[in-house]
Amino acid sequence: RQFIDLGSGLPTADNVHQVAQRHQPGAAVVYVDTDPTVLAHGRTLLAENESTTVVEGDVRDPDAIRHHPEVERLIDLRQPVGVILSAVLHHLNDDEDPAGVVRHWAERIAPGSHVFISHFRSGHNEETEAAQAKLMDAFGRGRWRTDAELHALFGTLTLQPPGIVPAVQWRPDPSEEPRTPTVWE
Fold first, then answer.
1. Number of structural domains found in the chain
2. pLDDT single digits (tens) 76-103
């Protein structure tokens, strides 16, 4: 019934608030980002939705996010919450302690909460090395991580089945044909 989407990007069609509120009217969603364009457009798009907001925050400063007035208004960490770290942790270098970011939230959320992580996954091959180089060229930071490094991000959290797999293989709809992963393994 409540979600924090860290490094959310611009809320668009069928984003977290739309899916959550379709299943649970009034579900609280806080999008967090640093990009001024994301913040401006997100606030305009969500102006009429009282249970959803966009706040400025840096994933590397989880205390500031947690204590932001809008987060405190909408999210009760004494109740289960979904913490979403989708396509954001690969932008953090190792010295920025991405595992510490996950640990911060894991230590503060109520039993029954869930943490979702999606991340670029190293395939130990030329393709993933080239893709990581493009990431560095484009943003000057970030890296693809191995499965062992991804497991370490979860710390003491219980990894749900099927575990670390390409996104298209995570709990696929049984009525659909299996899809071929578009990420390198």
1. 1
2. 999 999 999 999 999 999 999 999 999 9
